[in-house]
Hints:
The chain is α+β, with helices and mostly antiparallel strands. It has 2 domains: 22-128; 131-242, G protein-activated inward rectifier potassium channel 1 (Immunoglobulin-like). The strands form 2 sheets. Strands 3, 4, 5, 7 and 8 form a 5-stranded antiparallel beta sheet that branches. The chain has a 3-stranded antiparallel beta sheet with strand order 1-2-6, with no helix packed on it. It is 44% helix and 31% strand. The model has no long low-confidence stretch (mean pLDDT 79).
Amino acid sequence: MPNVVKGSRPVKMMVVPYRPGQRILFALLVLTGVAVSAAGGWGYAYYTTVLAQQGEQADRRELSAQITELRQENEALKRQAAILDRLSAVDQQTGAELQETLTALRQRVAQLEEDVLFYRQVVEEETKETGLVIGQLDIDATRSPGRYRYKLMMRQLDADGDTYLTGHVNFNLVGQMQDQQVVLPLRDLSEVEDELDIRLRFKYFQNIEGELALPEGFEPDRIQIAAVATEPVSKRINEDFGWVVALE
């Protein structure tokens, strides 16, 4: 019977098999797990560090490109400012000269306009009583309602018998139709004339005559005669005649 100390609790003893190889394997497994964990942590840290460095490098490149672009833009603005400064100086220098030149040109134009007006008046006075004139204009009624005989005589004053007067004349009727003013050329009213510009060529006079028919609803008011002579003296005539009809 084993010795037992009086008053103490008996201790149970358990017998286990002695296996030194299992303990060594467990220790190796623990060490391997620690090593793998350490390697994984180092790899993750290295990976995140590399990513951070790459991001910083990309940011540096972008900032460097922006700085280069801003520097180029700044240099361009400086060049533009220098050019504008030089142009401003040139403008200030030439502004007074340009103003003087413009003033002189305006004065010259005004003088030329006065000269043209003077010579025009002289020519009009010289040709007023010579060359082409309206000798006669007659409108006669016929037995047909709305039909009239017309006769326009153009003359050449101071004709020498050898010189032809050349030019043209326009014969227009002005009146009312459907409460509106209407201008009708002679070619639309007469079967004789087919041109707006009636040709003139004579030594002493030329008659333009025939019959005209007024369109229905047209009420004539006046006759416009516009004539132009090109030879032997340049001259223009513009006269209005009232619609006066001689009874047959």
